[in-house]
Design goal:
mainly beta, Beta-galactosidase, Chain A, domain 5, 29 strands, binds beta-D-glucopyranose
Amino acid sequence: MNRSLLLKLVTILVGILMNTNQSVCAASANSITVTPFGKTSSGREVDLYTLENKQGMKVSIMTYGATVVDVIVPDRNGNLGDVSLGFDTFQPYLTKSPYFGAIVGRYGNRIANGRFTLDGKTYQLATNDGPNHLHGGVKGFDKRLWTAEIVRSSSNSVRFTLVSPNGQEGYPGTLHLAVTYTLTDDNALKISYEATTDAPTIVNVTNHTYFNLAGAGNGSILGHELKLGAAHFTPVNSVLIPTGEIKSVKGTPMDFRKPELIGKRIKEVGGNPIGYDHNWVLDKKLLPGLKSAAEVYEPTTGRVMEVLTDQPGIQFYSGNFLDGTIKGKGGKVYDQYDGFCLETQHFPDSPNEPGFPSTVLRPGEVFKSTTIYRFSIR
Ligand code: BGC
């Protein structure tokens, strides 16, 4: 039996299983479909998993990079639109994607000089951002082919797994990682991470989706309103490595404790290129668990995206490095500030900053984390 026939069969079987669920839990139109999306440079097949909920929201994730390819949500008039930047086909993801939608790791964001010391031993990681290590190195988790499996115990989940061997990109310890995407009926995309190791290592995984709530390719995000649950941020040096300071946002353009237009004070942020590319220290709540980290509102469509997480930080990146050279979905050009990322995470360069929360994972421990992107309209 050929491969596409097999995938169609899987889709039909999943449909039948979902229908079985429907008769149990009233009228649900959840579905998961699997389609071939392309081939890696070594000829390995890449599949696209599309989750749909009963409100018609759809999220597609491919096995390359466990990458979110589409996030299709209604606006205030009920019109569906894709709010995630990316490409219509697989090939450009191989050659020109600035981490669109991908899972990044083993360590998301930067490690100064790609070097850190753990238990007295110094490790040199691959450097791929000037002298620094960025998003897992030359071939991070975003450039790996993951194994996908539909989660039978859930109505709308796909679990992606990856084994990252000892020494890959310089990291110690073989890491087993699972990332489960769940689409709920209240239009939330839940991302759950679980990792174990066989030797002490460092872990900081996140999702790197670029959003534009007016629709991908429909202009700049400077008119979006942002609220962050953070009274502090971590200032950076000229190559975006934290200085180690945890600074109050008060009186600075980093103050999003009350909703503010992203573009309002962006020029004052500085940087080269100018814009937001910083980690905010999420306010601690008395209760453990998921906290509301961010909320973004787009006034013309009425779309709202809320981010909830159990992570200590969030990287708000305003798409500063987009420069009009990428043509994305529908042939639309992505210019500077045409998308933003809200990457829930541990702070950049934590392995070299004793004052930051630890990112060390040891054998016998299980790293677990959850982030939710929830969509609604106003
Ligand atoms: C980083 C940016 C980087 C971008 C890559 C963000 O997470 O903070 O500095 O350029 O990823 O697309």
